[in-house]
Amino acid sequence: MRLSVLSFLAGVVLLQSFTILPEAKWFWLLFLCLPMLFFSKLRPLVFIALGMAWAAFRADLLLQQTLPESLEKKDVVIQGHILDIPIERGRVTRFEFQIDSLHYEGSDYPGPGRVRLNWYGAKRSFQAGERWLLTVRLKRPNGFMNPGGFDYESWLFQQGIGATGYVRAGDKRQFLGLSMDPMSRLHRLRQQLMTRIEEMARPGVGKGLLLALSIGERSQIQPQQWDVLRATGTNHLLAISGLHIGLVAVIAFWLGRWLWSLSVSTLMRMPAQLAGALVAACAALAYAALAGFSIPTQRALIMVLAVMLGWLLRHRVEPGDSLSLALLLVLLWDPIAVLAPGFWLSFAAVALIFLVLSKPHAPGLWQRWGRIPWAVFVG
């Protein structure tokens, strides 16, 4: 399994080096390669091809949501809803918007799906899930590719954003009510928590850090704080991902197992390890929801659930197999994740931890667990 998953990963990564996507007709040849699965020496080649095909399929779906070039920088009328918590900075309000329909000069056009909008001089506050009819001016994703610089176009592609733009002044700006879908309700709850934390927190630099670590909202962190975090290499600690969700899952597992084992009657119904795994899975899911199911959070949640699967099935799973299963599930869920440094850092860190714990060690808590931070740091 491990070699097959690594081969699948190699195929996904290999496709990212292509300047254009291969035509779909070439991947029909995969059906001719499937008999090669019965030959163990040829199996990795098949999984490399499968990884390339899956990554190409998902990338093609994303590219189909790009704004048509003919509509770029034109005033178009869109209808949809606000996806996440709007960010207000001075006179500018920024939010991600899901387009349900797009019209230009009386004709309907395919929309780019998810877009990033700025609203200048808005005279009201906005909520996640608000449905609007807006006149906007959009442009296709683009950015600089300077060596060592931030690749904005790649980041937009990873986020599934098909266009960026701003709301135009005019008559066609109409509020249409609130969206009642589950994700809109979730983001409204997060926004309410954000407002409550801002009201209760004392003025100072700690408010932004508190919001970032509690609900994954980093817009309140000051530029001076970001400078310190970047200089010390600790800015990744404020992105709710593997570290935070893993920590919550571990605490929930031990706490759930301990509480369950306090009663003999509960132990007769379910083993304490199984109860702890259920509690850990629920805690990880709740924390991921609190962070709005961001892309790094989704990866971390899949990794935690893959590890807990062995406990829930009451089957002993080797750490390497759990990590391989998590890697495969993440690639199936989001093959574009290989473009993010956090993808490689997360799996490399977990692999190092498993490697350290598998080696013989001297007795004692420090000898067993104290070397893990050093292994991850050096790795």
Radius of gyration: 24 Å
- How would you classify the helix and strand content by structural class? alpha+beta
Separation, N- and C-terminal Cα atoms = 25 Å
Main β-sheet description: 5 strands, mixed, barrel
Please state how the strands of the largest beta sheet are arranged side by side. Answer: 1-3-5-7-6
Question: What amount of the residues lies in strands?
Answer: 5-15%
- Quantity of strands, as a count: 8
Q: Outline the low-pLDDT stretches.
A: none
Shape: globular
- Considering DSSP H and I runs of 4 or more, what fraction of the residues is helical? 40-55%
Give the overall average pLDDT. 84
Q: In DSSP terms, counting alpha (H) and pi (I) runs of 4 or more, how many helices? A: 15
| Helix and strand run | HHHEEEEEEHEEHHHHHHHHHHH
Structure characterization notes:
It is a single chain. The mean pLDDT is 84. The relative contact order is 0.09. α5 (182-200) packs antiparallel against α6 and α12 packs antiparallel against α13. This protein has helices at 2-16, 30-33, 43-63, 152-158, 182-200, 206-215, 223-232, 242-260, 264-269, 272-290, 295-312, 319-333, 341-358, 365-369, 371-378, and strands spanning 75-82, 87-89, 92-104, 107-109, 114-120, 130-139, 161-167, 174-178. The two termini are 25 Å apart. It is globular, with a radius of gyration of 24 Å. Strands 1-3-5-7-6 form a 5-stranded mixed β-barrel. A hairpin with a 2-residue loop joins β3 (92-104) and β4. It is built from 15 helices and 8 strands. It is 51% helix and 15% strand. It is α+β, with helices and mostly antiparallel strands and 379 residues long.
